Structures are given as structure tokens and as C-alpha cells.
Amino acid sequence: MTKIISDQFKEISAGVLKNLTDTVLFMLAFGIGMSTTGRSVRGVHQAAQWAEGLNVDSIRRALDQLKSKGWIKRDLHVTREGQKRLATFIPEPRKYPKRWSGIWYLISFDIPERLSWKRTNLRASLRRMGFGMLHESLWITPYNFLGDAQEHCKAERLAEYVLPATSKEVGTRASKELANRVWKLEELNRKYAKWINACNEGSADLEQEFELIFSYSALLRRDPFLPKPLLPSPWYGERAHALFVKRVRLEDDR
After folding, report:
1. Could you say which DSSP state residue 136 is in?
2. Could you report the per-residue pLDDT of 31-70, keeping only the tens digit for each?
3. Residue 229: inside a domain, yes or no?
4. Could you read off the pLDDT of 80-95 as tens digits, one per residue?
């Protein structure tokens, strides 16, 4: 990748934005710096002067690419297709269900060492589906993702080594303790609270604004969005999501 963005910016974005095109799309979508500089090539450049390698010509090329991909309109507003692209590095927060059936869905497995690479892939797939690791070979979730897991195992010819199961709750307190152990919810809750405090400290410069957005994105990626009965109380995730939407709302397609 061409070194367009400064090391400092890449550290803030946690490697999520891979190139200048994504960076410009990100700035236009969140309106970063646009309130004072306006929506123009020069305005985007002025808003991003703190990042290395950004000049008017490179930004103009990025804007041309965004238009050709259909991610922005001629007036530089982001289209629905552009927002789909944004969703690949800024995940959409989900709702925390108010109720829970009390059923845990489990996947346990005993895969031979000769298939260790498939075992590694299975763990990664279970994590993407929403399972949490209780033990290296025992993964759980309060949501019924067993069908997805079984489909993956069938496709990878692992079904004979994998056992799906269900288990009833062993009491609300015990289930909350289990959820906290698997997903480290109390630690995540503290980080949400810290993020809220950072947002409430007052106006932020462009660099701080980027950092707030990407730190929020990192929290979303860690959040399993469990039912409320399994969450610590008070849970700061919902408050953080509401504050984020109020602070930097993605623009509607125009």
C-alpha cells in the first residue's frame, strides 16, 4: 500500500482505513471538518492537513474514484452504496434484547491434530458468528446460532468431530457471571464509560474526533450485544451508542 496516511493516523484508525479513498469517504460521511471548510476538494484537504501526504491532487483522484464506484454523488454527499462500504469498517450497533429464554447454545469439538488448521478456522468462524469461548473446545452463545455452526462444519467435513447442544440457565446470577467470564463484560462496560466521559469533555480537534470514532468502533467490535439480563447494571453500551449517533451521525442519501 502506498504510504499516503501518516503513521499517527494509521495508529488512530487501527489499520481499518486502508487507503486515501477510504479516508476521504470516511471524512465526507461523518462531516469531519466540513462545517468550517465546506464540501470541496480544497475543503477536504484543509480538514485533513495534519495527515501526511494529503494534497489537493491526491484528494481529487480519491474523489474521482469514489464517484466512479458510486460511493459519493457529484455534490460529495455519500450514497447508500458508500454507506455500505463504510459499514465494513464502522460496524452497525445492534439492539440488546430485553428478554432471554434462559437457554445457552453450545458447540463442543474434538478435532484431530492432523486437522489443526480446520480447528483454527472453526474457532475463528464461531467467533464471527457470535459464539464466545468458554474453553478452547467449548463455545457458547445465548442466541441460536447452532444451524450456522452446523452448516459450517458440514461444509468443512467436521461434523463427526463436533457436538452441538443446548443447556438451561443455572440461575440469573450464575449466567451473568458466566457471560462476564466469557466476554469480559465488566471490562467492556468500563471502556464504554470511559469513552462517554471523553465525548463529554468538550469540543475536540480533528485528530481527537477521529480517535473517538475509531475507539468507539473498536468497542462495537468487542461487544457481543447480549440480552440485557446477562449484562452488568448499569450498562453503558446503549448510552454510548446514543451519544455516538448524536455526535457523528452518518448522513442520509440525498
Report:
1. T
2. 655 555 555 555 565 555 545 556 677 778 888 888 889 9
3. yes
4. 888 888 777 777 788 9
Q: Give Cα separations from 28 to 21, 60, 62, 81 (angstroms).
A: 11, 13, 12, 14
| Span 110-114, average pLDDT | 95
Using a pLDDT cut of 90, give the percent of the chain over it. 46
**252, part of any domain:** no
Q: Is residue 97 part of a domain?
A: no
Domain with 195 in it: 184-247
Is 38 strand, coil or helix? coil
Whether 1 is covered by a domain: the verdict is: no
d(CA 124, CA 171): 29
Q: How far is CA 198 from the centre of its chain?
A: 19
- CA-nearest of 133, 129, 145, 142 to 108 is 133
Nearest partner of 200 among 251, 250, 240, judged by Cα: 240
Q: How far apart are CA 219 and CA 91, in angstroms?
A: 10
The tally of domains found in the chain comes to 3
pLDDT (tens digit per residue) in 119-158: 999 999 999 999 999 999 999 999 999 999 999 999 999 9
Same domain, 240 and 210: yes
Cα–Cα distances (Å) from 14 to 8, 43, 89, 217, 235, in that order, read 10, 25, 10, 10, 25
Return the pLDDT at 234.
Answer: 95
Are 72 and 25 within 8 A, CB to CB?
A: yes
CA distances, 192 to each of 91, 99, 104, 200, 237 (Å): 16, 22, 26, 12, 6
Task: Report the CATH number at residue 118.
Answer: 3.30.70.240
Q: What is the rounded CA–CA span in Å between residue 135 and residue 140?
A: 9
